[in-house]
Design a protein that fits this description.
CATH topology: TIM Barrel
Radius of gyration: 19 Å
Low-confidence stretches: none
CATH superfamily: Luciferase-like domain
Helix content: 40-55%
Strand content: 15-25%
Largest sheet: 8 strands, parallel, barrel
Shape: globular
Number of helices: 13
Distance between the termini: 15 Å
Mean pLDDT: 94
CATH class: Alpha Beta
Number of domains: 1
Strand order of the largest sheet: 1-2-3-5-8-9-10-12
CATH architecture: Alpha-Beta Barrel
Structural class: alpha/beta
């Protein structure tokens, strides 16, 4: 991962629509795009693989693939295809996702999520980075080989200190989501570093996922965050994280103005560029921006934010 890279999260209703968005982001100079799995568009890794064949330099990443949806050997094999089509450009993020969604959609037995994640990441790292794996764990078994190792950084979703500590111990990059920025640097990053120190290696990269909007209309930005991300404060794991970050009872209070201000970056272009660069300066290795739009012309609003992101990434 390249320190200071600032990318965007892409979403859409169909695979062609999303691939077109990725190509457009590359044309605007956005250095990285990320996709989550689920929703109406289909599988993120399949879409990013298609985009790999139609782009030249933009970095591509999953943020995240739910671990319950496929065996880690299957995911590693799929990641190998994407990496072969986009050498040095593909990053693989995986994580447990949410209990309610995984149980409802997949019938997953959502227990010991960190235990599952620990083994899942270990299998991915071994198979992708050495080309073979011999692993017998409590949750997963894997004994196979790839044709050759592939250059695919492995990351995991992280929300509370134990998950950041786990990423540090495994040497896997950590991806945050809607975490107040002070919490990221006062609680999450130290936990990541502590896990790595205990394991005897350098801290892995930290990718901070942030809602971002180029707009000086604070009320409109807050409304945009509430519309786009409304349910997170009412989700159990996020409520616990928000409480640790100093925003208790979020399931009742929702996205208060103070919580939005703690999580999101907004302002005019100069302010947004400066704030994004400050996040990198505080210790983030990369930023993933979820673009929040305001006003009647959502496309123009999105492009203003993407241009600021491209500018903030310039060295």
């Amino acid at each position: 991962m390249v320190k200071g890279t600032i990318g965007i999260a892409i979403s859409g209703k169909t695979a062609p629509e999303i691939v077109a968005q990725i190509k457009h982001a590359e044309a605007l100079g956005v250095p990285a795009v990320w996709m989550t799995s689920g929703g109406l568009a289909g599988d993120s890794l399949a879409i990013l693989t298609a985009a790999a064949a139609q782009t030249q330099k933009v970095l591509l990443g999953t943020s995240i693939v739910p671990i319950w949806s496929r065996h880690p050997v299957t995911l590693a094999q799929q990641a190998q295809v994407a990496a072969n089509l986009a050498p040095g450009r593909f990053r693989l993020g995986a994580g447990p996702s949410h209990k309610q969604g995984m149980e409802r959609a997949l019938g997953a037995d959502f227990r010991e999520p960190l235990g599952h994640l620990r083994e899942y990441i270990a299998v991915l790292q071994a198979l992708l980075h050495t080309g073979e794996v011999d692993f017998d764990g409590k949750h997963y078994k894997a004994h196979t080989r790839l044709a050759s190792p592939v250059d695919v950084p492995v990351l995991a979703s992280a929300l509370r200190p134990k998950s950041f500590d786990l990423c540090g111990a495994l040497g896997a990059g950590a991806i945050t989501w809607v975490c107040p920025l002070d919490y990221v640097f006062k609680a999450a990053l130290p936990a990541l570093q502590a896990g790595a120190k205990r394991a005897g290696h350098a801290a892995p990269p930290l990718a901070v996922h942030i809602p971002v909007c180029v707009s000086t209309d604070a009320a409109a930005v807050r409304d945009g965050v509430r519309e786009r991300l409304g349910y997170f404060p009412k989700t159990v794991f996020y409520e616990l994280m928000f409480a640790e970050a100093g925003f208790p009872n979020s399931s009742h209070t929702g996205w208060t103005d103070a919580l939005v201000n703690a999580v999101a970056i907004y302002g005019d272009e100069v302010q947004v560029v400066d704030k994004l660069r400050r996040v990198i300066a505080r210790g983030a290795d990369e930023i993933i921006a979820t673009v929040i739009t305001t006003g009647p012309d959502h496309q123009a609003s999105a492009e203003a934010t993407m241009r600021a992101i491209a500018k903030a990434s310039q060295r």
